[in-house]
Write a structure and sequence with these properties.
Distance between the termini: 107 Å
Order of helices and strands: HEEEEEEHEEEEEEEHEEEEEHEEEEHHH
Radius of gyration: 31 Å
Helix content: 10-25%
Strand content: 35-45%
Number of domains: 3
Length: 442
Amino acid sequence: MKGLIFALPIVMAFLLGSVLLSPAFAQLQAGGVDKEGDWYVGEGLKHGDFFSYRMCHIDYKECAEFELDLWIKGDKQVGTESKWLAEVVVYDGNKIVVGELELGKIAPEPTGGSEELSSYRGAFKSSIAWLSAFATSDDSKGGKGPKEFSAASWGKIGNIGGEQVIPTEIESVTVPAGTWETVLMSWRTGGHDSKVWIVDGFPFPIKAATLTHVSEGTPPPEYTFMLLDYKENVQTSPFEGIVSTAEEYSALGCETDFDRDVTIKKPTNNYDYQVHVFYGPEEPVEGCEMQWLIKFISKFDDTEFLNQVQFDFLVVDENLTPQRSIAQEEGRQYLYSPSGQYILDMIVEEDPGEANYVIWIYGLSPEGIVPSTASDYIEITVPILAGQESSTEIPTEPPTTQNIPEWIKNNAGWWAEGAIDDTSFVQGIQFLIKEGIMTISS
């Protein structure tokens, strides 16, 4: 008995210690692979390199995919700093964006460039260039320096728990750009693994599949990307002749700088949800751009956004028969909003007059899982204006000028001299129109 009493504090201390120390043990993840050498973001980057990625990021339209093509044009001197200058083309649904990015030399993060690329610049920095938070070309001026493949850890992520970013294994990976021997970098967050595949001597990772940190439920993607193509020694711009969509629309007379000023808030047809919609421009034009912000809200609480919304944006006829599906145009079965807020860009293809737009909600469920509830919808009628091309009439015959009466000519002269008033001059113009002598287009 005495021995048991003597041993009891030791047993209790061991049990208590194991409970108290388990979170610390969870952070001590050991990594490292059997491979010599090191790596950093931008390793081997040079003039003439061309990269094409398919990618998404949670901060841009909740991880809606787009293609980003980047060509290293050369150097650019900014003050005392020498940077890489890159030409970039983004293919985002029906939209093409053309511009430039400035990339740092210690860490090839975008630090400047065309304003039109600002959203994509942030997505690139927080995904393809994200590992530069741990591995850079040198450790001076705030750099982290190259990291060994055999290192147990490259550092900790900033999320709660500070999980380690570790080299996990050597893996052969095939992407559209080819098959590569990679080192898998991984970390755990919210109980799930995020992964990025890197290649020794290659400037950027070739693939990633990462998840956001959530306390419960299925985490949505934080970012994903895949290398579609890579070329070396491209000496002339591969983007010659590519024109941005905004420039094309501007040439057509479309409004390109507009706000989402029109707002509509209403329950769905069966009162299952509330939807708050903002769109712009206020007067959409056939053949021009239009943008929607759609907020899915609880029918019980105006401040509560719905999560994991599966929906589509449709154009319908008077019988609610779909004539157009934005999801299908983007090559998807449905549109998906993890947070309940969705930005949608589209081209107005509807004829001038009234267009019937429908937000069709299939239900709430994780991506890839069919909702078990019945669908519901709201219908929004929007007046569409004629585009520049459809509103321009080409006269079939030249206007008649030889039959203008003398008194009309005299009136014009007298009006120019101030001898008659505006009303008398206008009466002459009205006469010409009435008699068909002057033809005015719509």
